[in-house]
């Protein structure tokens, strides 16, 4: 069946004037009995009482009340368990996380925790997934209305305040993937400098003595400390700090044969 001329011609008065006016009148009539607008923040969809009053369709709403477990909002940081491994900043695709110094700790080795700029954050959750200690999680708080852009930057202390309020948080990864790479050593390149063990945030690297070889006639042994690092895989959080500080690049990612 062919379409009517009124639908085919957009300049027809019925299509261009009468129909929009009829739609507006219909919505106005509905609003006399039940307003379509939610007066936020005084009325919120996650409030069960309000949902029942406005007859919102059944389902689990998004908000501070009843939420989905995997909803991603403002982060919460437990400064006490943070080991300054830098994995959150390293895994952030938006480069919105910066490691900044927090008060307390050893003056020689100041503790650094993540500072998040929510003006750049895309709430992907990569940082909380990468956190080996589960100290950086994502809550269900979604309200970030501010008057200045600088207020979108949350320092560690402010993220810790969110943690202390005990808002609902996403589940964290507790088990290490079976196919995860390990820290391996290219022994001939190692000079025993101790940089990896010194900078390891979990202190899982131990420098053990190695036998000093007997030089052949006319051969000169390389100048080095006759120690090599041994990594305790159970304590290693795969942060890669040891690899980044190694001056000889003798530590690398790989799998044990």
Any idea of the CATH topology of the domain at 75-164?
A: Alpha-Beta Plaits
Low-confidence stretches: 55-67
Mean pLDDT: 79
Helicity range: 10-25%
What would you say this structure looks like, in words?
- The chain is 23% helix and 17% strand.
- It is built from eight helices and nine strands.
- It is of the alpha+beta class and 257 residues long.
- A hairpin with a 4-residue loop joins strand 2 and strand 3 (110-117).
- The strands form four sheets. It has a three-stranded antiparallel β-sheet with strand order 2-3-5. It has a two-stranded antiparallel ribbon with strand order 1-4. The chain has a two-stranded antiparallel ribbon with strand order 6-9.
Throw out a few tags for this protein:
257 residues; alpha+beta; Alpha-Beta Plaits; 8 helices; 17% strand; elongated
Provide a brief overview of the structure.
The chain has 257 residues and is of the alpha+beta class. The chain contains eight helices and nine strands.
